[in-house]
Amino acid sequence: MGAEIIYGKDLAAELRLEMKEEVKKLAEKGIIPGLTVVLIGDDPASQSYVKGKQKASDEVGVDSNLIKLPDTTSQQELLNLIGDLNTDENIHGILVQLPLPDHIEEQAVIEAISPEKDVDGFHPINIGRMLTGEDTFYPCTPFGILTMLKSKNIEIAGKHAVVVGRSNIVGKPVGQLLLNEHATVTYCHSRTKDMKKYTTEADILIVAVGKQHFIKAEDIKPGAVVIDVGVNRMENGKLTGDVDFEAASEKASYITPVPRGVGPMTITMLLHNTIKSAKQHHQLSF
């Protein structure tokens, strides 16, 4: 049989076409959604992400601006910059690319960004709004995953969703978004005993641990929906996920590939949040 593959890349392309139209409507009103990305240091992975964000922004017409700072930048200098960006009327989204150099406290930076411009969805106020089921900026990767599930009309309410991984960026918020959609959610992590017991009970299995082929076919319930968030580089240089794709796709009903799966959705939801922020700032709804 084999699973149906959910290509995030294709869905992202469709959504960006819709966003392009939305940005055109805003431009007619003299509004250009503005996103500022702050990159500190020369981390190659971060530089690659930022390039992707820039390209996607250009594609939909979001005005994306990159501020590059040396890794000697002090925490106070960064906080001062964020303060200036918070008050800039032309900027609707602020994103500080993580990870940060060791001498800068990540949480202090996240909390310095105005919740109204926190298009990454990591500010405690936005996380709190998500927890209480209010409309807010959702973290981009979890929001992308939810959008992928809904694009295939996969039923979430009443289903058992198992999330492997508990990071603040993916694991915790994706579980919360699924709970908001009335799933029963179990979190598994490095201290979970007998993880297979849980993963084989999952109707929806989301894996975000950053370990190559951590989940094998025998860890999956037949007919489960498998979402692979991991990106790992193999010895041959190719990318692969946290799930053994070939074997798992024989058992699952739906599965996401790596690459071309969840990744393209993350940047797309960032653009969605930036456009939403521009609309909210100008009190528009369409």
TrEMBL record:
Q: What is the protein's given name?
A: Bifunctional protein FolD
Q: Which family does it belong to?
A: Belongs to the tetrahydrofolate dehydrogenase/cyclohydrolase family.
InterPro entries xref list: Aminoacid_DH-like_N_sf, NAD(P)-bd_dom_sf, THF_DH/CycHdrlase, THF_DH/CycHdrlase_cat_dom, THF_DH/CycHdrlase_CS, THF_DH/CycHdrlase_NAD-bd_dom
One Gene Ontology term of the biological-process aspect is: L-histidine biosynthetic process
| Source organism phylogeny | Bacteria, Bacillati, Bacillota, Bacilli, Bacillales
Q: Which Pfam families match?
A: THF_DHG_CYH, THF_DHG_CYH_C
Q: Which reaction does it catalyse?
A: (6R)-5,10-methenyltetrahydrofolate + H2O = (6R)-10-formyltetrahydrofolate + H(+); (6R)-5,10-methylene-5,6,7,8-tetrahydrofolate + NADP(+) = (6R)-5,10-methenyltetrahydrofolate + NADPH
Which GO-annotated molecular functions does the record name? methenyltetrahydrofolate cyclohydrolase activity; methylenetetrahydrofolate dehydrogenase (NADP+) activity
Top-level taxon of origin: Bacteria
- Name the job this protein performs: Catalyzes the oxidation of 5,10-methylenetetrahydrofolate to 5,10-methenyltetrahydrofolate and then the hydrolysis of 5,10-methenyltetrahydrofolate to 10-formyltetrahydrofolate.
Gene3D superfamilies per UniProt: Leucine Dehydrogenase, chain A, domain 1, NAD(P)-binding Rossmann-like Domain
Q: What is its EC number?
A: 1.5.1.5, 3.5.4.9
Chain positions recorded as NADP(+) binding sites = G165, R166, S167, V231
Can the keyword Amino-acid biosynthesis be found in this entry's annotation? yes
Q: Which CDD domains does the record cross-reference, listed alphabetically?
A: NAD_bind_m-THF_DH_Cyclohyd
Per UniProt, subunit arrangement is: Homodimer.
Q: Which keywords appear in this protein's UniProt record, sorted alphabetically? A: Amino-acid biosynthesis, Histidine biosynthesis, Hydrolase, Methionine biosynthesis, Multifunctional enzyme, NADP, One-carbon metabolism, Oxidoreductase, Purine biosynthesis
Q: Where is the Tetrahydrofolate dehydrogenase/cyclohydrolase NAD(P)-binding domain?
A: 139-281
The Tetrahydrofolate dehydrogenase/cyclohydrolase catalytic domain covers 6-120
Please state the pathway this protein functions in, per its UniProt record.
One-carbon metabolism; tetrahydrofolate interconversion
* Entry GO terms, CC: cytosol
HAMAP family tied to this protein: THF_DHG_CYH
